[in-house]
């Protein structure tokens, strides 16, 4: 995957709360091109694998339960400086610390249920994109 791509998920809380359309609008209005997109659900095993880097953290069990409890929207996005610019667009992990106008400020409820994911490096963006999409689903 090229370095101008990132991977995102609209998390179960934001899907449950009816924010898919508003969040996709914010993403495309910010200049990201949608490379891949689908509604899907992670199994418990998927969520454990996806968040394996956090497996020793005290919140891991809750995180896995949350991320597998309902459908998510997974997407690969393309833009210059995609990883950094997308994390700016979504705001801080804890919505209480997120800047005004960011997706998490608008739609997240707590640090544990923070509405949207954004890859934290080009390397992880590539790994996470392939975790969710086949080559035939990327455009
Ligand atoms: P993600 O985009 O979900 O990876 O969030 P972000 O990179 O902003 O933050 P990190 B540190 O990667 O958090 C991963 C998930 O763990 C949750 N979390 C984090 C807690 O529940 N409690 C905590 O104290 C911390 C630090 C938030 C993230 N997401 N979810 N869902
Ligand atoms: Mg993270």
UniProtKB/TrEMBL annotation:
Binding site for ATP: 11, 59, 87, 93, 104, 114
A single MF term (Gene Ontology): ATP binding
Localization: Cytoplasm
Reaction it catalyzes: a ribonucleoside 5'-diphosphate + ATP = a ribonucleoside 5'-triphosphate + ADP; a 2'-deoxyribonucleoside 5'-diphosphate + ATP = a 2'-deoxyribonucleoside 5'-triphosphate + ADP
Top EC category: transferase
Signal sequence coordinates: none
Domain of life: Bacteria
Domain Nucleoside diphosphate kinase-like: 3-137
Main location group: cytoplasm
HAMAP family (UniProt xref): NDP_kinase
Similarity comment: family membership: Belongs to the NDK family.
Self-association state and partner proteins as the record states: Homotetramer.
Listed NCBIfam families: PRK00668.1, PRK14545.1
Entry protein name: Nucleoside diphosphate kinase
Gene name tied to this protein: ndk
């Amino acid at each position: 995957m090229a370095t101008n791509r990132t991977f995102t998920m609209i998390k179960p809380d934001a899907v449950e709360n009816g924010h898919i359309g508003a969040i996709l609008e914010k993403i495309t209005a910010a200049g990201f091109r949608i490379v891949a997109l689908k509604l899907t659900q992670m199994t418990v095993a998927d969520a454990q694998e996806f968040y394996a880097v956090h497996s020793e953290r005290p919140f891991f069990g809750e995180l896995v339960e949350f991320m597998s409890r309902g459908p998510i929207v997974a997407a690969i996005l393309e833009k210059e400086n995609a990883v950094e610019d997308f994390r700016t667009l979504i705001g801080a992990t804890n919505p209480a610390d997120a800047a005004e106008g960011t997706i998490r400020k608008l739609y997240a409820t707590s640090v544990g249920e923070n509405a949207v994911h954004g890859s934290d490096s080009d390397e992880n963006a590539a790994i996470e994109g392939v975790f969710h999409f086949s080559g035939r689903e990327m455009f």
